[in-house]
Amino acid sequence: MVVIELEPEEATRPSSTAAEEREAARPSSPASPEEQEAEEEEKEEAFEDALTDEQLREGKHDKAIKECTKALELNPSYLKALLRRAEAHEKLEHYDEAIAG
């Protein structure tokens, strides 16, 4: 009889199946056009978010309002742009615009 001793790590690690190994080795498929478009929109929103955040910190409230308005024209459900625009209006004491959305 032959006894094989396993290292403690190997003994507790579950073995993978051949199908799992093939799946892991397979290159991922390219993203669909819809996924690519969604990823591009996320990048644009992140850039505009960083831009307006910087403008608000620097006191460029008018410019932040314009940038947020552009972002909302492209994506009306972009909540961060709506909130940042309201914050800029508030800093400029445009209270009616701040609550109007």
Describe the protein.
There is one protein chain. By secondary structure, the protein is mostly helical. The chain has helices at 8-12, 18-25, 33-57, 61-74, 79-91, 95-100. 70% of the residues lie in helices and 0% in strands. Helix 4 (61-74) runs antiparallel to helix 5 (79-91). The N and C termini lie far apart (79 Å). Residues 1-49 are annotated as: Disordered. InterPro entries: TPR-like_helical_dom_sf, TPR_domain_protein. Residues 34-49 have a biased composition (Acidic residues).
Regions with little confidence, pLDDT below 50 for 5+ residues: none
Number of discrete helical segments? 6
Question: Architecture of the domain at 32-100, according to CATH?
Answer: Alpha Horseshoe
CATH superfamily of the domain at 32-100: Tetratricopeptide repeat domain
General form: elongated
* Average of pLDDT: 76
Helical content band: over 70%
**What's the total number of strands?**
0
Per DSSP, what share of the residues sits in E-state strands of 2 or more residues?
Answer: under 5%
CATH fold-type name of the domain at 32-100 = Serine Threonine Protein Phosphatase 5, Tetratricopeptide repeat
| Radius of gyration, CA atoms, in whole angstroms | 26 Å
What about the largest sheet? Answer: none
Structural class, by secondary structure, is: mainly alpha
CATH class membership of the domain at 32-100: Mainly Alpha
Task: Give the SSE string.
Answer: HHHHHH
Query: How far apart, in Å, are the first and last alpha carbons?
Result: 79 Å
Pfam family, one: TPR_19
InterPro entries: TPR-like_helical_dom_sf, TPR_domain_protein
